[in-house]
């Protein structure tokens, strides 16, 4: 089945961190380009990294540069993002092709303002493209309360409607909490539907409106374990899956203007939370 070969590789040979692959999400180091993000991840001790695909600047030369950095450092690339609908050309096929060229198993998609019919249609198109041109690549639909696909249940409904093995759902713990979900809801779905977890922490009190939610998602996240979201429960609900750590934070950027120091601080905090999940699950 599509994705299974690469997913199995990403669940083995993890050495520590509870048997999980830990990945530095692209959003944590948006102040560097994708090739440099690989170097930052390696210098900070991350075994994997996420790649930000800017359709205006990504070229074949970018793909070659990223591939060379991955090979030189031994860092794996977990995902490429973003395909965001409702904003004109989303560049989805180019992202899928780049993922295939780099051996990346996941392309991250979000609904933007597109209605659910359009999201399902586009997700299906990208799955068919992956099936034909990029075996091993899966398209993960991320739900956000500020977009049209707002909740876990809505994302699952869209993916099931598409009914293609290359389609999956990405859970971000911040968006799960802010959309009214909980880690307990993750156990209602087959594991193949939720192939990896994106971790973010925040205060327990949610912003009052959509503008506040948007600002928090883009600027207000905190280090794992320094907020109040149930990260340990989420990790226990999805045992063994890779973990991508998304930490967009104006405060963290100010504290750690050097991206390597920032990435190292995020990794240290993440490992503490993963270790706590291992202890509580033991």
TrEMBL record:
Xylose isomerase-like TIM barrel domain residues: 38-259
Gene3D superfamilies noted in UniProt: Divalent-metal-dependent TIM barrel enzymes
Pfam family membership, one: AP_endonuc_2
Transmembrane residue ranges: none
PANTHER family hit by this protein: BLL3656 PROTEIN, HYDROXYPYRUVATE ISOMERASE
Protein name: Unannotated protein
Species, as recorded: freshwater metagenome
